Structures are given as structure tokens and as C-alpha cells.
């Protein structure tokens, strides 16, 4: 998974987060292997990303990020690495690592978005909230999911104090995301395995850092086309019981993430909401 590969103020930090969200996470990726336009405008671009690989976008000034998001609302804009904004009351972001191929992201109504791609690198995108929460309960429906290659659909975000990158993996492409296993638990009628990995001197939302990744991965993929629930507090509690505590600062963004890496193609149409 990459390192929503994601601050300054609450919103901008979130932007940086979603962007970082995603660089290549080689530790996890080796084991299992981690926007465009407001109001439904489409952006076609050359993109790249890596899931559970700490995808981080290069640092960009806050004003530059906001400008990118604003310009994208015109539609047909060329995205250079990272873009984010708000749409229908939801925060969205798109990050890519500028490899060959294309990624086309579209914001739909409410919490809906879609993305299609045929890309050699790593990208991350999704819709959600400008800040995380240790107790958020989300609903989602993945109406379509095709990923030929590495990738995941996950609830994703970061914490600070300490810096932690987290995932709740619901669906994936050619390989199931794994790492150092720390246990298993049940939540929302599904069984999850707990994994962790360390990223050393890797890109993050706060520049090059050494940080921990924590993630839950379903033992079997979530069904397509059904309303599902993620009670994030259950995951945070299970991680803590396994000795993997999140940070105290949840100001970075949290999104229903689509990530792909390592050369892949696919299509996702998903909708997220707060329960």
C-alpha cells in the first residue's frame, strides 16, 4: 500500500497526506505486492503509485496545491503528481508518480467517484474527509472493481504523534496485501488479519521519514455492489490490543482509497458516506 498516500493547516495537511499516501511500498508490496475535476470533470493523465508502499507525493507548497485543484475544475487539465479539493461536501485527492500510461478520475454525485487506468506506475485517489477520526463509521458501496495487477480498495489515512500510515483493505488486485502478522479479529460481519511493516527513510506526508504502517486486510474480499460498513474504531482498538497504537493527531485526511501499483489496468466505481 502506498504511504490516499494521504500538513500545514488541517485541510492542506490532508492534501499532502493523500498525496503522499502513495509511493511504492516495497516491504509490503514484496509480500503482497497502495483528481481532477470538481463536479464530474474528467482528468486523463499519466500516473503511477504503489499500495502499502508508502506513496508520498513530493512536497508542494500549499498555495500550489490549491491552485492545482482550482485549475482542475475547468476539466481536461493535465495533473502533475497531485491534485485535491472538495466535491459535494467530500474531500477528494489524486496522486500519481508520473510513469507511462493514463489514469482518468471523475467525481460523481455525493461521495461517488470513478477511476479507470492503464498505468505502469503507482497512483492513489479517492473521496472522503479532510481529516481522520478514531471513531468514524463509514458506509461504502463498490459498484465495480477490476484490477489486473497490484492494487487495493481501502479506507486509508495517517496519524501524527507518532507518524503512522493505516489501511483497512476491503478489495485487492492480483495479490492480497500482507506484512508481519499480528493477529485476527471480526468487525462488521467480516474477519480481518492485522499486519504491520516499517518504512525506513521513505517518503511520507511529512517528508522523508521512518514510520510504521498498520493495516487490516479482509480474509476474503468484500463483495461488489453491496452496501458495506467499516467501523474504524474496531480496527483502532484491535490494533492497539496487538501492540500497534495509532498516533494522537488525526488531522490528516482519510479517504475511501483506490490504489494501484507495479503496472496494472482496471476500473473502479465506488461511493462512500458516513454512517
Automatic annotation (TrEMBL):
Belongs to the glycosyl hydrolase 11 (cellulase G) family. Its EC number is 3.2.1.8. It is an enzyme of class 3 (hydrolase). It comes from the Bacteria. GO terms for molecular function: endo-1,4-beta-xylanase activity. The active site is at 165 (nucleophile), 259 (proton donor). The lineage of its organism: Bacteria, Pseudomonadati, Bacteroidota, Sphingobacteriia, Sphingobacteriales. InterPro entries: ConA-like_dom_sf (IPR013320), GH11/12 (IPR013319), GH11_dom (IPR033123), Glyco_hydro_11 (IPR001137). GO terms for biological process: xylan catabolic process. Keywords: Carbohydrate metabolism, Glycosidase, Hydrolase, Polysaccharide degradation, Xylan degradation. The keyword Translocase does not apply. This is Endo-1,4-beta-xylanase. Residues 78-272 form the GH11 domain. The keyword Ribosomal protein does not apply. Pathway: Glycan degradation; xylan degradation.
Amino acid at each position: 500500500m502506498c504511504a490516499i498516500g494521504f500538513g500545514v493547516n488541517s485541510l492542506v495537511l490532508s492534501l499532502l497526506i493523500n498525496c503522499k499516501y502513495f509511493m511504492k511500498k516495497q516491504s509490503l508490496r514484496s509480500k503482497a505486492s497502495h483528481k481532477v475535476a470538481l463536479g464530474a470533470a474528467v482528468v486523463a493523465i499519466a500516473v503511477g503509485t504503489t499500495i502499502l508502499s508508502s506513496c508520498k507525493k513530493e512536497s508542494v507548497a500549499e498555495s500550489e496545491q490549491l491552485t492545482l485543484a482550482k485549475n482542475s475544475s475547468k476539466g481536461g487539465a493535465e495533473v502533475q503528481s497531485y491534485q485535491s479539493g472538495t466535491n459535494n461536501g467530500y474531500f477528494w485527492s489524486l496522486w500519481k508518480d508520473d510513469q507511462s500510461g493514463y489514469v482518468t478520475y471523475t467525481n460523481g454525485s455525493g461521495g461517488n467517484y470513478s477511476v479507470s487506468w492503464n498505468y505502469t506506475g503507482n497512483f492513489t485517489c479517492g473521496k472522503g474527509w479532510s481529516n481522520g477520526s478514531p471513531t468514524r463509521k463509514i458506509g461504502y458501496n463498490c459498484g465495480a472493481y477490476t484490477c489486473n495487477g497490484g492494487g487495493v480498495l481501502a479506507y486509508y489515512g495517517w496519524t501524527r504523534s507518532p507518524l503512522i500510515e493505516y489501511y483497512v483493505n476491503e478489495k485487492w488486485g492480483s495479490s492480497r496485501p500482507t506484512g508481519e502478522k499480528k493477529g485476527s479479529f471480526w468487525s462488521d460481519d467480516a474477519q480481518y488479519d492485522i499486519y504491520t511493516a516499517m518504512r525506513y527513510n521513505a517518503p511520507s506526508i511529512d517528508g522523508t521519514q521512518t514510520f510504521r504502517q498498520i493495516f487490516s486486510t479482509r480474509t476474503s474480499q468484500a463483495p461488489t455492489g453491496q452496501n458495506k460498513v467499516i467501523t474504524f474504531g474496531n480496527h483502532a482498538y484491535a490494533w492497539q490490543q496487538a501492540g500497534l497504537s495509532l498516533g494522537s493527531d488525526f488531522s490528516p485526511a482519510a479517504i475511501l482509497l483506490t490504489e494501484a501499483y507495479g503496472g496494472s489496468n482496471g476500473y473502479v466505481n465506488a461511493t462512500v458516506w458516513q454512517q
